[in-house]
C-alpha cells in the first residue's frame, strides 16, 4: 500500500512538503486530480498518480496546465472534490481558464496548488503568484510549515465549498522541498461520481451572464474577507510596540530571529496564512498597537502595499517598511541570518552575528554544472544538427527540458528561450526578421504542452524554419512523467493509445517530415541537411528513449566503449561531444566504463576509429 | 532544546538524500524535533545536492552562511565549496575520494590539491575528520554504501543529538533489505574509522 494511505490517523510521519500536500488532498477525500509536471510541484502529483493506481482517485497528467484546470473545473462543477497542481509559471498557462472560472465558481471543492520558486532553483523566472489571487479574486492560503501544508488542503476544500469558489494554495520551493514530522488526520471517503446540473445562465459566460457573475464574485469576496479576518491561519503571537507581519516560509525565519534576539516581549508577530482577501480588520487592529512595523515577505511587496493602504484608511502615520534598498529585496529567497540581521537593524537591537571564516586564501573549487547524461540522445541529435548546419548562419531557438542544457559549450545549441513552446513561435519571428537559417528544438512533452499551435501558425503563415522534435519518450527533466505520446504499457498501465507526434505534424500540413534515430549519426546528419534545404516548415523527429529513463525501466544498455591504441590524442571526441564518460588519465583520453552507456556516438565520430566496444 | 544545524553536500547520485532520510527517521524515533530541506539542481545530471538538517526547536529549514554546526561532505572539493556555511566551531567530516567534475576530468579545469584542501579546512574549523568512505564502502561490499560509511563517521562524533542505535534502526527501516547487511557494515566501518582519527 502507498505509504501516504497506509498509516492510521494521529501517526507521526516524516513527510516532504509535497507528500504532505498529497496526503492533505487524500484526507479531504479528493476525487479528481490533474496536473502538468513542474518543479517544485512534481512530487505532489507523483504521489497522487501512484495512489490513483490503488484507489478510486482519478488522476491525470494533462497536456498542459490550462487543460488540467479545465478538467478539474468541470469535475468540481459536477460536485466532486478536485485538485489541480502546477508550478508557478504553469499558472500563466492556466490563467485564461482561471480568471473566468472565478466568475462561475464551483459546486464541489476545487483547490489549485501553485508552487512558486523564489531564487529560480529550477525555473525561468521567480514571479510571485500571490498576485493571481488578487487578479482573479480567488481566496488564497499560504502554509509556513509542512504540517500546515497538509492541514490547509482539507481546510481549503471546505472553504471552497462554503464560498463556492476555487481556492488557491500557494507554496514556495522551501515548503515543497522541506521535510518535517507531520501528524496525520482522518481520511474522508467521498463520492467519485456525481452529476452536472445544467444552468446555462450561470455557466455560459456570455457578456450578459458575466456581468452578473462578476458582481457575485465581489460579493463572495466580502464574505471571504470576514472569514480571513477570523481565520486561525491569521494569528498574532508575542506582544510589544514593534510589529512584524510575515507569511509562508518567512514566518519561520522571523520566529527564530525573535527567539535568537531575545525580543519576544518587544515584538508581536502577525502571521498571514489566509492571504487573499487580506484580513483587513485584523491588520488595522494590529497596526494600532504598533510604533513601527516591518513586513517580511519574499518576492513582491504584496502584503506591504495592502498594509500601507489599510494604515492610510485608518489615518495611521506609523512607519511601515518591507521592501527597500537597506531592508528586504524583491530578489531571490530569504534566509534566517538575513532576516535576523534586518530585524535587529530595523528595531535597533544589538547582537553579534556568527563570525565568517577567513576564506580569502581558499583554493579554487571547479564549478560542477549539470550536464546531459552520458549517452543522452539529445547530445547525439545536437551533434548531428551542428554538423548538418556547418557553414550556415543559424539561429537556434530552444525550449524547456533537459535539452535546454545543450546551450552550454561545446554543443552551444540554444540561442533563445522564454517559455514552454517558445521555440516554435519565436522561430517564426526570427525567420521573418532575419535572413538566417532558423533551426529550433522542442521536447516531446513540451510539444504536446504548447508546441502544436505554434507549428500550425508556422505552416499557415509560411514561416521558414526547421523544427527538431526531441522525442525521448518521457518528460525527462521533471522526473520521467508520462505524456500523451508515451506507451503507458511500459508503466504497466493498460488501455491507453499513444498519440503519434508524426501523425500530428503531418496532419497540420508540414510538407517535409523525417524521423531519425539520433545514434545513427551519419544518416541523421544527411536527413537534417535535407530538411534544412526545404523552403517553408520542415520537421525532424529525433526518436530515442531517454537513457536515464531506460535505466530506470531496467532496459539494458549497450556494451561500454574504450579507447584503443589507434587514438592520436587530438581529443575531437571530448571537444565536440563532451560526454561525461570521458576523462583524461596520464595525458590520454579514457572512457569510464561504469558511466558509458554504449550509445556508440563517439565511436562513430572518431576519425581514427580509436573507440571500440569492450569485449564481454 | 538547543539547535544543531547540519549541512550535507554531495554530488548527484551519491545517495545523500537517502542519508538525510535515515537521519530524519532516527530523529523522529528518538523524539527529537527535526526539519530538513534539500536542493537538488538536476541532481541526476551530475549537479551538486545540498541538504540542511536542523535539530531542536528552531523552525527554519535552511541554514545561513557561517551557521552550520556540522558539515558532512561526500566529496572533498564539495566540502571545501561549502566552507562558507561554517564557522570556527564547526565540526567537518569529509570523504577523501574525489569525484572530479567533467571539466577537470577532461583537463580544462584543475582539481584543488587534496592535502592543501584538508589543511585549509583543518586550520579554520574546530575539528576535521577525513576518511576514504569510498574505499570503506567497497570493503563493506557495496560501493553505493558511501552514504552509510559517512553516517557512521558522523554519529561517532556525537555532534548530532541522536544515539547511533536509533540510526541503525532507521537504516533498517528505510534502506532496501537486500543491502541491509552491507549498509550496517558500512555504518560500522565509518564509525570505527572516525574513532581512530582526530
Ligand atoms: S534524463 Fe534523459 S533526457 Fe535528461 S539528460 Fe539524462 S538522458 Fe538526457
Ligand atoms: S559510447 Fe561514447 S558517447 Fe556514448 S556514452 Fe559511451 S563514451 Fe559517451
Adjacency order of strands in the biggest sheet of chain B: 2-3-1-4-5-6
Residue share in helices of chain A?
25-40%
Give the fraction of residues assigned to helices of chain B. Answer: 40-55%
If you average the pLDDT of chain B, what whole number results?
93
| Main sheet properties of chain A | 7 strands, mixed
- Structural category of chain A: alpha/beta
Number of domains of chain B: 1
The domain tally of chain A reads 4
Head-to-tail CA distance between termini of chain A: 41 Å
The number of helical runs of chain A is: 22
- Please give the count of helices of chain B: 8
DSSP strand content of chain A: 15-25%
Query: Largest sheet of chain B, described in full?
Result: 6 strands, mixed
What's the architecture of chain B in CATH terms? 3-Layer(aba) Sandwich
The low-pLDDT segments of chain A are: none
CATH topology of chain B: Pyruvate-ferredoxin Oxidoreductase, domain 3
Number of strand elements of chain A: 23
Give the SSE layout.
The complex is a heterodimer of chains A (616) and B (198).
Chain A: H1 3-6, E1 12-16, H2 17-27, E2 32-35, H3 42-52, E3 58-61, H4 65-76, E4 82-87, H5 88-104, E5 110-116, H6 130-136, E6 140-141, H7 146-163, E7 167-172, H8 173-176, E8 178-183, H9 200-203, H10 207-230, E9 234-238, E10 242-247, H11 250-260, E11 267-272, E12 274-276, H12 280-288, E13 292-296, H13 302-313, E14 319-321, H14 336-346, H15 377-388, E15 394-395, H16 422-433, E16 437-443, H17 444-460, E17 465-471, H18 501-507, E18 512-516, H19 521-532, E19 537-543, H20 547-552, E20 561-563, H21 572-577, E21 582-585, E22 588-591, H22 601-605, E23 611-613
Parallel strand pairs in A: 2-3, 2-4, 4-5, 5-7, 6-7, 10-11, 10-13, 13-14, 15-16, 16-17, 17-19, 18-19
Antiparallel strand pairs in A: 1-8, 6-12, 9-11, 20-23, 21-22
Chain B: E1 4-11, H1 16-30, E2 34-40, E3 48-55, E4 70-73, H2 76-81, E5 91-95, H3 102-105, H4 114-124, E6 127-131, H5 133-140, H6 146-156, H7 164-174, H8 180-195
Helix pairs in contact in B: 1-7, 5-6, 5-8, 6-8
The complex binds iron/sulfur cluster (2 copies).
The site of one iron/sulfur cluster has 11 residues of chain A, from α20.
